Amino acid sequence: MNYFEVFDIPQLLGIDTKTLERKFHELSRRFHPDYFTTAPPDEKSRALRMTALLNDAYRTLRHATKRVEYLISLYGFKSDGSKVPQSRLAEVFEINEQLEDLRTAGDAGPRLDEIKRQIHLKRQSFETQLEAATQHWDVLLSKGADQTELKTHISTLAKILAESSYIRNLEDEIENRQGHYFRQA
Q: 69, 151, 164, 184: which is deepest, by most CB within 10 A?
């Protein structure tokens, strides 16, 4: 049973998160282990498995990017970096070199702010691409597109996620390690 089936919803990416949350709470109450304390062992075990599945499914489907990653995994794809264009890798390498120069100098100042701004703009661009691609997926699914067309679009979603992961990682690195590496001017 996949995560969409757990909540009895189609494999759309534009999920109404309020409805998802409501269904999560309904199902959580139905399968909560406290209701199975006097049940036979196999029912207790099933309730525990279902509770774990519900929690995993909810954590994944409520987050837009995780939802896309999960959907592409259902089609046998993953958002790995093996198909990222060389130009994107070169761009990320250049940004990493700039960050390393700043770390070595120990003085971030306005250069770090400019790099952060560039990275933020790139992330926004990917978010826009991903939003458009997820909406297109929902249209394809709603119109009953064939498996070939769906898999082609899943490949597009995987490509966008793979490329954007490099930018998200740069942003996370700066955010999480800024105080350790950079001294503000």
A: 164
- Inter-residue contact 162 to 79 (CB < 8 Å): yes
Sorted by where each begins, the domain ranges of the chain are: 3-62, 81-181
- Say how far apart CA 32 and CA 133 lie, in whole Å: 37
Burial class (CB in 10 A: 0-12, 13-18, 19+), 131: middle
What share of the chain has pLDDT > 90, as a percent? 51
Q: 3-62, what's its fold?
A: Helix Hairpins (1.10.287)
Please write the tens of the pLDDT for every residue from 102-134.
777 766 678 888 888 888 898 899 999 999 999
Q: Which residues of 5-44 are buried (b: 16+ CB within 10 A; e: fewer)?
A: ebbeeebbbebeeeebeebbeebeeebeeeebeeeeeeee
